[in-house]
């Protein structure tokens, strides 16, 4: 709503503390990814053996792990890698999914049938299973994990994009453009795409949360970065063996992932609401 | 207070305000209106005049944000203003019934129409449960639905627009109301269907002594049907009285304007007819096209010489739009040929067809859908130039400004977006876009049917002026014979895909040879008044 005054926006936010909190969480995580040194001065890689398996305390907010590394520092330094993977995953899903949907919806005919049947098949396989298979084929590493997660999520983007393109394509203004002699590339770029993209971008923000979770799940299973590089999913996995004695090693990285997923979902919903005018 | 003199429905000094984000809007100001038992009263006005708001206030169904600020509404001696929701329920249906505007959205798509009629009977306990279905069929029959027993078991999408409107009338009749409020009950329908439905409504009202408050934008409809007419503009009633007096000797300038704008009542050509030349610009022969096995266009042939206007007229489903779309290559004919300026373009595709588009352009029916909401008017108007690489950015911008000027829009509109414009202004933009490449032929697909009458008149005059200035040739698609009389040199009447009659406009309209042309002529609202 462009005509909302600053005061109205303030009121709007005041009535939605969850939304404000979500914004703060995301802002902090982004900041941690860019400048981890702002949050902690401790080394995420080298441990202090004398301080191994300490519980949470003012000097070690999230406690320490079995080699004496500060868990908080590892979570903060892991943000960059985990976020980068998530962004790559969402971009892969968005760009390739939207491109396929655009092609299928705009061209129609046999191409539409072929693309959409392939998408149906992709969607029939559970996302996590598909990404496991893909990452096994691609090889280990954070980027490959991200690509695998992206590919396993592209079906939803392709479907939504196709539906939007079909809706827009039948509009009179698209025909008017065609009738006045605009080439198909112009029709696609200036008429169909701008009017179809909105809901797809909202889906991208909603997918963010899922992608964080799936990237972490794959790195939990050990497909991600090689130790000792910190990555959220790997941190959760690392503490698994000490769950009975050092609960903080899995709990805090796990809570971080949960917080980021919830916060991105809340922001995505808010954007969705803005779009549909609620 | 129940006496005939007091009236069945009495509205006194009604003020209605809508709360919007930009502040309150006074939609209705100080409206007085009286409907006597058994009388038909018409409220006439253009969109935004407050006529629908007045009607909805009278049945307590103002849209969200609407509020009666002042005045009183009395029905049968009972004050309705400030009535509770429960109180309203006892009035609606049995006291006052509403026939809504749009038959396509006013019925529940997932329930059979018989059930929807029976619902009213059930709610008001007007028939025993066992008799509900039979009573509903009887109501459908009274509303003029053919084969009512079979129709009652059908869903709304299986019915035509006219039949759906009859179902809505059956629903309104179910509670045997004393007043029916009909909000533009036929404006979405073909003229012949419109006539049949209004005839029927009028008969029912006379038979049962039901009063009708008829809301319409069509002065002709009001003239034909109502004993008393109120003309609304800008939220107030500018003039009211017996129909004959108001329309025969209008006292208010607005009524005079409205009368002058109504094509059926004026009917003078906007420019002298032009003789048929020899320079044939567009010729179609034996054009055929079918969709899913049914012929939409069946053996249509006509020629159009340069600088003239040919109108194709017909009701919905007559194939007139499909014919026009085949003429400009938006649809491929199954058989027949399209010749443009001596060149056979029937099989033109791809780049060849695109090159031809420079010479023929199309203006769509609905200006609310034919402009890309995300583009500025400058970009919209300049788009054909850009598509053909005419000039550079600056010269295209200049040309766009010039085009907007030609269609009487301010140059400042270049940066605005379609959403900021009214329907008439949008249609001007669409016309400007069609003229950008200086085409020879412009195909106008119902260019004025989505607009108010006074705006219609402006757009028609604009089209005629542009035709004279640029030597344009028009293929004009319309359902309105009155518009044909105003602008066309020649007319083709279509019915069920066939061209049933064609010839010079004046000859066809004064001495029609086809039965269907006569039906269409007789159905034009307002002809009874001009005849008398």
Note the main attributes of this structure.
heterodimer; A: 278 residues; mainly alpha; 10 helices; B: alpha/beta; Rossmann fold; 4 domains; 6-stranded mixed beta sheet; globular; transmembrane helix (chain A); transmembrane (chain A); MetI-like_sf (chain A)
Task: Describe this entry's structure for a reader.
- The complex is a heterodimer of chains A (278) and B (532).
- In chain A, helix 4 crosses helix 6 (142-169), helix 5 packs across helix 6 and helix 9 runs antiparallel to helix 10.
- Chain A is an all-alpha fold and 278 residues long.
- Chain A is 72% helix and 0% strand.
- The mean pLDDT of chain A is 88.
- Chain A has one domain (18-276): Orthogonal Bundle (MetI-like fold), CATH 1.10.3720.10.
- Chain A has helices at 6-14, 17-34, 71-107, 109-124, 127-138, 142-169, 172-179, 184-220, 232-238, 248-276.
- With 532 residues, chain B is of the alpha/beta class.
- Chain B has four domains: 1-95 and 180-261, Rossmann fold, CATH 3.40.50.300; 104-176, no CATH class; 280-359 and 439-531, 3-Layer(aba) Sandwich (Rossmann fold); 376-437, no CATH class.
- In chain B, strands 6-7-8-3-9-10 form a six-stranded mixed β-sheet, with helices on both faces. In chain B, strands 16-17-18-13-19-20 form a six-stranded mixed β-sheet, with helices on both faces. Chain B has a four-stranded antiparallel β-sheet with strand order 2-1-4-5.
- In chain B, helix 3 packs across helix 4 (132-142), helix 4 (132-142) crosses helix 6 and helix 14 packs parallel to helix 16 (423-435).
- The model of chain B has no long low-confidence stretch (mean pLDDT 87).
- Chain B: Residues 11-259, 282-521 form the ABC transporter domain.
- Chain B: Keywords: ATP-binding, Cell membrane, Membrane, Nucleotide-binding, Transport.
- Chain B: One of its GO terms (molecular function) is ATP binding.
- Chain B: Pfam families: ABC_tran (PF00005), oligo_HPY (PF08352).
- Chain B: This is Dipeptide transport ATP-binding protein DppD.
